[in-house]
Design a protein that fits this description.
The complex is a heterodimer of chains A (about 140) and B (about 375). Chain A has 2 helices and 8 strands; from the N terminus they run ααββββββββ. Helices cover about 10% and strands about 35% of the residues of chain A. The termini of chain A are far apart. By secondary structure, chain B is an alpha/beta fold. Chain B folds into 2 domains: about 130 residues, 3-Layer(aba) Sandwich (Peroxisomal Thiolase, Chain A, domain 1), CATH 3.40.47; about 230 residues, Peroxisomal Thiolase, Chain A, domain 1, CATH 3.40.47.10. A 9-stranded mixed beta sheet of chain B has the order 3-2-4-7-1-8-11-10-9, with helices on both faces. Chain B has a two-stranded antiparallel ribbon with strand order 5-6. In chain B, helix 3 packs across helix 13. Classes of the chains: A mainly beta (about 140), B alpha/beta (about 375). At the A-B interface, strand 2, strand 4, strand 5 and strand 6 of A face helix 4, helix 5 and strand 5 of B. The structure holds zinc ion. Zinc ion (ZN) binds next to loops of chain A. The site of zinc ion (ZN) has 8 residues of chain A, from loops.
């Protein structure tokens, strides 16, 4: 089956998606980004969890994020022995701070390593790496 | 109920090997335990507490290790918080002894990371099972990369320069040149560090710790018992431990675990920074040392770049640091915390020969485990010979 063939040729790690995080990953497959907000204390959080870690409330609102932010910090990796990454060196890893105020780890794409800067405005890219998994990456804002 | 001066480190042993393809991890641990007990003037029959963790140990590895050693201890701790584990184990052992849970505890570590060719810093992409891993591992974070992002941010916020980080590596190599068992002993210059290849920007090869085999052990007992043992006791004054992580997406990345564990250790020890005669700071990377010094409060945040230059960290400087040559030059068998305790104890006993710190009365050891740029642990230990 073509789907299985594709999944086999993608050699980087894939997330183990459980029920607690499935809505977030399913939204990425629709090319939508959501963050969670506690309905009791109002705290925003990433990554998704069933309970708010600040007050343990299970009452959660999913907020649609704009998908824009800026680079908080980054590194361009020139050495990684792991299968999959070894073949795509160099690549840029970054913590991006969303406009909503949450930081997440990601890759910066469509940009040469020399151009990446802290505070550079970026926008979400939804990378359908397999039929089952879409990864959230970022590129310079257009 | 203060722990201060109630317990003491009475035996230490750093395994001299840096490459041991002929030995198992457990053999290195057993040889280290024998060395530390000899140093203390104790025997394996005296041991009723055991603390161990290792990259090669399974989840229940402490039970398997007790089987290997034929031990049936009254106290066990296999807390694995990465390279900081053995600083934390020493603190836990002291607390257990003070609480009466055991009398003589041994902390042990062994590893064949080098001969087994483990890609410790650049083997990222494995299959982590924690929820946070699912949002990180797909992007290829390596250990070096995670620390490099802290260096990048520090340079951005404070103008810290690569040559300032490089000076840390140069100082560690100078200390290694004074340590006969260090793995790399040829002196290097700031230019050598800057000319070495970039592993993960802005960190160069020589900003990164080495990979070696090795191990060590530490023996802890009550201050009372310590009085009639072979060596002068080194008393435990204060301890602290904690973690920093993504903080549900809201972390300030330049605040690290050392800020909290250090504050606790200083408060509990009842000493100040001026009282510290030497420090052993986990040097997985040059940036680890710089941010740890800031977070422990030896200088203000942002001042680390100036603080680490001008020879301040040399064994004859204002704050002698990692006098054994550290993980950057002496040894780094995967998890280095045990050597922080061992070298600090040797300095407090005056056993360090050409690299001996003059009038060394109070020493601080701080271990960092995991990765500063994703999640990590920190454990601080303050000890004295007085
Ligand atoms: Zn809440």
């Amino acid at each position: 089956m073509p789907q299985e063939k594709e999944a086999r040729t993608y050699r980087k790690p894939l997330p183990h998606i459980d029920e607690e995080m499935r809505p977030w990953w399913e939204a990425l497959q629709r090319h939508e980004l959501y963050v969670q907000k506690c309905r009791d204390c109002g705290d925003l959080r990433f990554h998704p969890r069933a309970l708010c870690p600040s007050c343990l409330s299970p009452r959660t609102e999913w907020l649609r994020a704009k998908g824009t932010g800026k680079i908080y910090t980054f590194t361009t990796t020139y050495q990684n022995q792991a299968s999959g990454f070894r073949d795509s060196l160099p690549y840029t890893l970054a913590w991006v701070e969303l406009d909503e105020g949450l930081k997440l780890l990601t890759n910066i794409v469509d940009c040469s390593p020399e151009q990446v800067r802290i505070n550079m405005p970026v926008e979400a890219v939804f990378d359908d790496v397999t039929p089952e998994v879409t990864l959230l990456k970022f590129r310079p804002a257009r | 109920m203060s722990l201060s001066r109630k317990t003491a480190v009475v035996g230490v042993y750093e395994h001299p090997t840096r490459f041991a393809p002929d030995k198992s991890m457990y053999q290195i641990m057993a040889e280290s335990i024998r060395g530390a007990l000899d140093d203390a003037g104790l025997t394996i029959k005296d041991v009723d507490g055991i603390c161990a963790a290792g990259m090669g140990m399974s989840a229940m590895g402490i039970v398997g290790f007790c089987d290997y050693m034929n031990l049936t201890p009254n106290f066990m701790d296999s807390t694995n918080i990465g390279g900081a584990s053995f600083v934390a184990h020493t603190a836990h052992a002291a607390a257990a002894i003070h609480a009466g849970l055991c009398n003589v505890a041994v902390v042990a570590y062994g590893s064949t990371a080098a001969s087994a060719r483990v890609a410790i810093g650049t083997g990222g992409g494995g299959a982590g099972g924690d929820p946070c891993d699912q949002y990180e591992l797909p992007y290829g974070p390596t250990t070096v990369g995670a620390y490099a992002m802290i260096a990048q941010r520090h340079m951005h916020e404070y103008g810290t320069r690569p040559e300032q980080l490089a000076e840390i590596a140069v100082t560690m190599r100078y200390h290694a040149s004074l340590n006969p068992v260090a793995k790399y002993r040829e002196p290097i210059t700031v230019d050598d560090v800057l000319a070495s290849r970039i592993i993960s920007s802005p960190l160069h090869l020589l900003d990164c710790c080495i990979i070696s085999d090795g191990g060590g052990a530490v023996v802890v007992t009550s201050a009372e018992r310590a009085r009639d043992l072979k060596k002068k006791p080194v008393y435990i004054l204060g301890v602290g431990e904690t973690v920093r992580h993504a903080a549900r997406g809201q972390r300030d990345f330049l605040e690290i675990a050392a800020a909290q564990s250090g504050r606790l250790a200083f408060e509990r020890a009842g000493v100040t920074h001026k009282d510290i005669d030497m420090a052993m700071i986990y040097d997985s990377f040059t940036i680890t040392v710089l941010t740890t010094l800031e977070n422990l409060g030896f200088c203000q945040r942002g001042e680390g770049g100036d603080f680490v230059t001008g020879g301040r960290l040399r064994y004859d400087g204002e704050l002698p640091l990692n006098t054994d040559g550290g993980g950057l030059s002496s040894n780094h068998p995967g998890m280095r915390g045990i050597f922080l305790v061992i070298e600090a104890v040797k300095q407090l006993r005056g056993e360090c020969g050409p690299r001996q710190v003059k009038d060394c009365k109070i020493a601080l050891a701080h271990g960092t485990g995991g990765a500063l740029g994703t999640r990590h642990s920190g454990a601080t230990l303050i000890m004295t010979n007085q």
